[in-house]
Design goal:
Beta-galactosidase, Chain A, domain 5; 4-stranded antiparallel beta sheet; alpha+beta; DUF2264 domain-containing protein; 15 helices; 23% strand; UCP014753; globular; DUF2264_N; Glycosyltransferase
């Protein structure tokens, strides 16, 4: 099963061929898959489960979770159905009238005694475990009101007053209930805003408290800190739900807060193209990667504002490209629905709050289908933004100080590679692999950690006598100076930095990858230090090449379509390669290139600076010598050429020169 684009319009949409009708076709395609599992008009849109180890409900979860999974199936599939009904109200999927199906089940969901009843807040609370205060039902109520607003004339307005009151009373209970102190406050705000629009009295003090909290999370450059993290929840939750709230409530009732939300959205879209590659593909990063193309939704939501600043042609191009990235792949679908994975099912990226129906949240960008045919989002010619001016031997850097994200568009291979910071987790936290890496790449999704030695796109530290390797659990941001990004990574950080091993990171973007000059600060020895490149899918034939030049070593992995290289200059003893199974989100088997460094003496003036490059190339043509070995000259201030003190000087073959200086980093670290 995969989506096939029929009658593409490459005149208006030269990059994707996608227009408004194609988006509606995509809605029908997704709903056909969902409804292939619906046995009758009385059945809810539930997905056959294939993953049980992590996702809910399971033997460890509270009984109310059974109802939450059912609610996710109803409300999130409705996020796909509602925009379709807005445009094609007579749509049938198989034998089912979408209008009649959702009209029936939404009312049944809030009506005690029906087979589709989802439980009241008090009933959910009675089934909850100690410490459970916030419930998935709040999120799903927000999805319901979005869909009801979108399909107002087709669904909401057809309910009688008594039925509306029944639905409103159910929504009000969760709107006024406890919510998580992060993006979830927006769920309550949207529910309250919908009820206010419908004439139901709300507590405006509660609304204002939620709204001020949302503004307080703002960090700059269009990004909000979600709880203690920066991740895609800022774009796909804050920057989607907040503009909708503006349109429904904020502009009328809270003009100052609304003005700040509008400003923050416009600030985001100024540089948000930074996170998408030449094909407008999404990079796997952070939690909830199963929401996939939802990352593109802020480009649509921006047009819900009174004064949007997004470029409509770029907005549609990125939304369309991100959608096609996933729905045109057969491995994304299992039993007619998107898997719990990025492409194929991949349990290492699944969180315990997800169920089989959770991926339907990928429908967030479908809010664009509520714009009329003559809206600029649909009439503007597609634009590929900065990629249209990108030369093959060039690189474009986007700096976002607020969240500590620096993204690079690589002209030589069309990829985006972004480096993140301002992340902190307890040692061995399951979230570390999602957030703390040397960088994230659109062509090479991150691999799971096994803590056995080298890990993909990360340093790992193994002390003699220990069985498990350490990986950094805090990444601090120190800013960009003279095109060099500085960060600090600590291993096994808990309460303070005293005695903890760390690495001062400094990286330089290249047209085909990233050059690193990282200084180790590891007080405890003996140890082995590893630095992994990206995991390379190896289900098909992969060739291996070894090359060297003036003491620098390189190893290249090459498939029929793509190549990856690790080149090391100083600080490493060897480049090695290992095969792994079950850690890559694309393939069952993968190969990992990694550099190694070993230290035996407790104290001794030995090489401190690890200089390396991770490079990639599309197609079958081999790397040229200048591509694979980009450094012309490398020198250190000290006579031993170990890099223990003073700056590192690097001259590239293209004539650019860099001086890397780690001094005063300690006074500029940010979390």
């Amino acid at each position: 099963m995969k989506f096939e684009l029929r009658n593409p319009d490459y005149t208006l949409s030269p990059y994707t061929g996608m227009g408004r009708q194609h988006w509606l076709d995509a809605c029908e395609f997704l709903l056909k898959g969902i409804f292939s599992n619906v046995a009758s008009m009385d059945s809810l849109p539930l997905s056959p489960r294939t993953e049980y180890a992590v996702s809910y409900p399971n033997e460890k979860t509270s009984p109310w979770k059974e109802y939450a999974a059912r609610f996710e199936g109803l409300s999130r599939s409705f996020l796909i159905a509602a925009p379709l009904l807005f445009n094609r109200p007579e749509t049938k999927i198989g034998e089912y009238s979408l209008t009649e199906y959702y009209r029936k089940h939404i009312l049944s969901a809030v009506t005690k005694g029906t087979a589709s009843y989802m439980l009241s807040l008090k009933e959910v609370q009675s089934m909850s475990a100690p410490g459970e205060r916030a419930f998935q039902h709040t999120c799903e109520c927000a999805s319901l009101v979005i869909g009801l607003e979108q399909s107002r004339n087709i669904l909401w307005d057809t309910y009688c007053q008594q039925e509306k009151d029944c639905i409103a009373a159910y929504l009000m209970e969760f709107a006024n209930g406890y919510t998580e102190p992060h993006n979830w406050r927006l769920f309550n705000m949207l529910i309250l805003a919908f009820l206010h629009k419908e004439g139901y009295p709300i507590d405006e003090s509660i609304m204002r408290d939620h709204a001020q909290a949302i503004l307080s999370y703002y960090a700059g450059d269009g990004w909000y800190r979600d709880g203690h993290r920066f991740d895609y929840y800022s774009p796909w939750a804050f920057q989607v739900y907040a503009p909708l709230w503006n349109a429904w409530y904020g502009y009328q009732k809270e003009p100052y807060i609304a003005s700040q939300i509008e400003k923050n959205s416009n600030c985001l879209v100024e540089r948000y193209e930074a996170l998408f590659d030449k094909n407008a593909n999404v990079t796997l990063w952070g939690r909830s990667g199963i929401y996939r193309n939802a990352v593109s939704a802020p480009f649509a939501a921006n047009f819900a504002l009174n004064n949007p600043k997004a470029h409509p042609g770029l907005a549609r191009r990125i939304n369309s490209g991100a959608l096609l990235q996933f729905i045109t792949r057969e491995d994304v679908f299992q039993n007619g629905i998107p898997t719990l994975g990025f492409y194929k099912e991949f349990s290492p990226m699944v969180q315990e709050y997800s169920c089989a129906e959770s991926p339907f949240w990928m429908a967030n960008p479908f809010i664009c289908l509520c714009f009329p045919d003559n809206h600029p989002f649909w009439t503007a010619a597609e634009s590929n933004g900065s990629w249209e001016e990108m030369k093959e031997n060039a690189n474009k850097t986007f700096i976002m100080e607020g969240p500590g994200i620096v993204a690079d568009h690589h002209g030589a291979n069309g990829s985006v590679e972004f480096r993140t910071a301002k992340a902190l987790f307890k040692p061995e936290d399951e979230y570390i692999p999602y957030y703390i890496r040397l960088s994230f790449h659109s062509h090479f999704p991150w691999e799971a950690f096994d803590y056995k030695g080298a890990e993909a796109m990360q340093y790992s530290l193994l002390y003699d006598g220990e069985e498990k390797a350490l990986v950094p659990n805090i990444m601090l941001y120190a800013g960009v100076r003279e095109k060099v990004l500085y960060r600090m990574a600590y291993f096994d950080f808990q309460y303070n930095f005293q005695g903890k091993s760390s690495i001062q990171l400094a990286d330089i973007p290249l047209p085909n990858g990233m050059l690193r000059a990282d200084k180790t600060r590891i007080p405890h020895k003996p140890y082995r230090l590893f630095m992994g490149a990206y995991g390379f899918p190896a289900d098909d034939t992969v060739s291996i090449q070894k090359r060297s030049l003036n003491g620098a070593q390189s190893m290249v992995l090459k498939s029929d379509t793509r190549q990856l290289a690790l080149t090391v200059y100083s600080g490493f003893d060897t480049i090695e390669l290992k095969e792994r199974t079950g850690v890559n989100p694309i393939s069952a088997k993968s190969l990992l290139l990694y550099g190694t460094s070993k230290r035996e003496k407790l104290y001794g003036y030995e090489p401190y600076v690890m200089v390396s490059a991770v490079l990639s190339k599309e197609g079958g043509e081999d790397f040229t010598e200048s591509e694979l070995f980009p450094i012309r000259s490398l020198s250190f201030r000290d006579s031993e050429q170990c890099g223990g003190c003073g700056p590192v000087r690097i001259e590239l073959r293209d004539g650019q020169s860099y001086e890397i200086n780690y001094e005063e980093m300690e006074g500029n670290l940010m979390i």
